């Protein structure tokens, strides 16, 4: 099969198109013919060996493959060759304390497709049948590949962790990112007012089209907490949706309302952030970590995608052979929404 293989860690140049043997599904597994795969910052970290992501080499990236079943492993029931599917990224044990409690995103024996085993930057990928989600005929493979990491993670952050409620004000950082575009739609779905930040007027206007009510250009207003307070009459945001990290952390904390919740899932610009401790305890604010999404989160998201309530935002689709250029494009922060690879 054709695949994009990394045989060493480094920049986008380590991604090379090669012919490699097509994998064979084992018991309980399926072979999926991949037609599209979403790109994520986790791909960039794994490629570079950053943030503790040291994949065994050679490696194939890609945690969001979508396609159709090409072969079934022994013992697989309920699926047929030709079924359209989306492959869930998290492989979980199902038996640990977290899996048993419905918090499978925290499984202590978790593996991630495209990180801990070969992923979807290839014509075929093998995955456990338990990881499959059926894909409705009207959803394209490209759209399906743009859903999981963006909407699943944003849903877990806003709904499962921050306990979003109608009428609240939600501040979405980096609204032009894939996860930012998802957060705007989820917040609007719950009847919330959305304040969006982005690095350009063009991105902000696109955020407005998705439903953002207040727009803040953080390059022009680096102390964006002042703009948040002005827009809320000095009250602040009930929820701050943070995933940028060091560059925005201090201002994100300062943007919180009394009893506000700052929920974060990443730290793209750095792992360390200055925190005004007084501002947290005096306001009885909450700082909530959030990792990935549970299967229940993702099922809730897919129901709304199928109904047309949520619309994945795709900035650009690259052919598989241009995976290295797609990584450069994502790293340059030119993106509004998701970047997707197409595998014909």
UniProtKB/TrEMBL annotation:
Transmembrane segments: none annotated. Keywords: NADP. The keyword Cytoplasm does not apply. The keyword Zinc does not apply. SMART domains: PKS_ER. Gene3D superfamilies: Medium-chain alcohol dehydrogenases, catalytic domain (3.90.180.10). GO terms for molecular function: oxidoreductase activity. It comes from the Bacteria. Signal peptide: none annotated. Residues 10-341 form the Enoyl reductase (ER) domain. InterPro entries: ADH-like_C, ADH-like_N, ER, GroES-like_sf, NAD(P)-bd_dom_sf, Zinc-ADH_QOR/CCCR. Pfam families: ADH_N, ADH_zinc_N. This is NADPH:quinone reductase. It comes from Thermoflexus hugenholtzii JAD2.
